[in-house]
Amino acid sequence: xxxxxxxxxxxxxxxxxxxxxxxxxxxxxxxxxxxxxxxxxxxxxxxxxxxxxxxxxxxxxxxxxxxxxxxxxxxxxxxxxxxxxxxxxxxxxxxxxxxxxxxxxxxxxxxxxxxxxxxxxxxxxxxxxxxxxxxxxxxxxxxxxxxxxxxxxxxxxxxxxxxxxxxxxxxxxxxxxxxxxxxxxxxxxxxxxxxxxxxxxxxxxxxxxxxxxxxxxxxxxxxxxxxxxxxxxxxxxxxxxxxxxxxxxxxxxxxxxxxxxxxxxxxxxxxxxxxxxxxxxxxxxxxxxxxxxxxxxxxxxxxxxxxxxxxxx
Length: 313
Description:
- The structure is a single chain.
- By secondary structure, the protein is of the alpha+beta class.
- The chain has one domain: (Glycosyl)asparaginase (Glutamine Phosphoribosylpyrophosphate, subunit 1, domain 1, 4-Layer Sandwich), CATH 3.60.20.30.
- 32% of the residues lie in helices and 24% in strands.
- It is built from 8 helices and 13 strands.
- The protein has helices spanning 25-47, 52-65, 109-119, 127-136, 150-159, 233-238, 241-252, 256-270; strands at 8-16, 85-91, 97-103, 124-126, 176-177, 179-185, 191-197, 218-220, 225-231, 275-281, 286-287, 294-301, 307-311.
- The strands form 2 sheets. Strands 1, 2, 3, 4, 5, 6, 7, 12 and 13 form a 9-stranded mixed beta sheet that branches.
- One of its GO terms (molecular function) is hydrolase activity, acting on carbon-nitrogen (but not peptide) bonds, in linear amides.
- This is Isoaspartyl peptidase.
């Protein structure tokens, strides 16, 4: 194992109007516990010399399996009362990437995205083609009931007869952007990023957000950084957020902290784009900026204690 590289992992479980007043003590505890479990899963892979791609996939699988987050099992309902999920994963060493959008009944969309990366000549598959690819590669499917959560269904019922869509899990129409993601730097100096989402409650069917779009919601490049975003996807697409951070580092020489702060707190905010991201640089620097009231997040850098947070510090 190459000891000279530090290793690090960061993750998010969505951003938005997340305040201490909006969560009960029990909910706060449940979210922190889920974030810690996912963080521990990915970190153990890195600690044992596993690669960054494995670590981000495994981390996101834990978050997809948790009904608290709007990805995988906890995905929200679209305009038709269905679940359509998106995911992407990218390798910083080779710039290989795999992404899927609009998939239904796939238990872990991030695993499907990883299969696209490793076992196809393509980057991006959608809907029925992606599902057929999943079946051919042994990816697990689940019935609709697996993805049903009462809270998500109640949110949809409140909106389904309107043209309003809602940005994730909230009793009111406050903004919450439900996406999960992870970034990692492994002991070999390689970076990777992964993102998965159920999108927006009552979104138009076949709507695609930033999460599966390489360069918008997900990006990794060993020369610079790995980034996974969460927020109002339309803005993250227009401003090519993940790639912009990498470019600011590569072409302007900015640090990860300065590049991500410039994009999240200035470029996005000036135009009404709300959300945040997690990122790690090739040197192991971590950044977790967000311009919303809260972001479910965590980070664990080798030699330091793991950290999990929800609200603005």
